[in-house]
Amino acid sequence: MRNATPRSVPNWLGPTTIVLAIIVIGAIIFLSTSFYIVDQTEEAVVTRFGKYLTTNGPGMHYKLPFGIDKQYQVKTKVVQTEQFGFRTVKAGVSTIYSDQKFPDESTMLTGDLNIVDVEWIIQYRIVDPRAWLFNVKDRTDTIRDVSRSVINMLVGDRAILDVIGSQRTTIEVEAIQIMNDTFKQYGLGIEVIAVKLQNIVPPEGVQTAFEDVNKAIQDMNRLINEGKEVYNKEIPKAQGEADKILQIAQGYAAERVNVARGDVARFNAVYEEYRKAPDITRRRLYYEMVENVFKDESGTTLIDRRFLNFLPMMNLDNSKPSTGNTQGGR
After folding, report:
1. Last residue of a domain, one of 164, 185, 202
2. Whose CA is closest to 329, among 319, 317, 312, 41?
3. What is the DSSP string of 81-129?
4. Rounded to an integer, what distance in angstroms lies between the CA atom of residue 80 and that of residue 105?
5. pLDDT in tens, 155-200
């Protein structure tokens, strides 16, 4: 016959043990659902019964247990990146990119009706974790759609050569401003800190021809710059020489005018004295003229007008030897 007597319960598995086990399990659940740690790169958004309660920074924090309060930790100090037109397989010193193409993202129409492939990235940071969690449902899709719309608009307003060349920086700066304004209107809670255009090339079928045209344009710009360099070197030099000659001429003219004015003033002064005493003034002028003519002579001999009589003059200046110069008397 089968023994129907129930087995005996172990001594240690009594009501007290079961109660203690329940208490321990409850304590573990209480502690695990009451405390949480926020990393230095994060902020924690806390909800109570699904309604927003508060936002906490890094450190250990307490919340009501058993699912009454829930925390959502958001990386607010980490710069996040979205790539368009390409994908990175492995980042590092030697970055590996995917061979897959994304023409739906990169192919655009420029303002002069040319097709161009544009690859770019955006970098953003979450500045409002509450808005990031609750205001927009498809956050990543929204970021990518807005970014594609803005870049397409900016590229479509410019010629292909401007997009490839001089307007790259302008497009990046304007894209940051427009994206931030749009995300602020959506209440997405992020801030775009950088937009970087990567490869900008024409479609594969016309790349060779486009490169030839681009090379010709670069050669043209190089020759223009070389011509401007020669111009800037020679023109200022010629202008300086012209200014120098002009200044010399102006100085010479001023000198001649001043000398002429001085001569006129001196003549007028002499003429005024001459009018007062003509004979005396005439004699004085004659003596001054004779003195000026013979001021460097060391010996003098007087003769009459017909060269008949000679009257040598004694040389009283012993420092200068007598010369045989002869002067005519009146």
Report:
1. 202
2. 312
3. EEEES--EEE-SSS-EE-S---HHHHEEE-TTS-EEEEEEEEEEEES-H
4. 19
5. 999 998 889 888 999 999 999 999 999 999 999 999 999 999 998 8
pLDDT, tens only, 76-126: 999 999 999 999 888 777 788 888 888 889 999 999 888 899 999 999 999
* Burial grade of 160 (CB within 10 A; 0-12, 13-18, 19 or more): buried
Q: Is residue 10 a part of any domain in this protein?
A: no
Q: Give 11's DSSP letter.
A: T
What does residue 68 show for φ and ψ, rounded to 5 degrees? -65, -50
Report yes or no on 5 lying in a domain: no
Measured CA to CA, the distance from residue 162 to residue 143 in angstroms comes to 26
Residues 143 and 109 in one domain: yes
Instruction: Enumerate the β-bridge partners of residue 69.
Output: 48
Task: List Cα–Cα distances, 311 to 140, 287, 297, 320, in angstroms.
Answer: 128, 20, 17, 20
Residue 210, token pair as written in the block: 């486009």
Same domain, 269 and 279: yes
Write out the residue range of the structural domain in which residue 249 sits: 204-293
Structure tokens at 171: 């497009």
> pLDDT for 48-62, tens place per residue?
998 999 999 999 888
Both 21 and 86 in a single domain?
no
Phi-psi category of 227—alpha, beta or left, where left has phi over 0 and alpha has psi -120 to 50? Answer: alpha
How far is residue 160's CA from residue 163's CA, in Å, rounded to a whole number?
5
Distance separating alpha carbons of residues 11 and 270, to the nearest angstrom:
153
Kind and range of the H or E run holding 69: strand 69-75
- Regarding whether 229 and 242 lie in a shared domain, the answer is yes
Amino acid at 122: I
What pLDDT is stored for residue 305 in this prediction? 64
Number of folded domains in the chain? Answer: 4
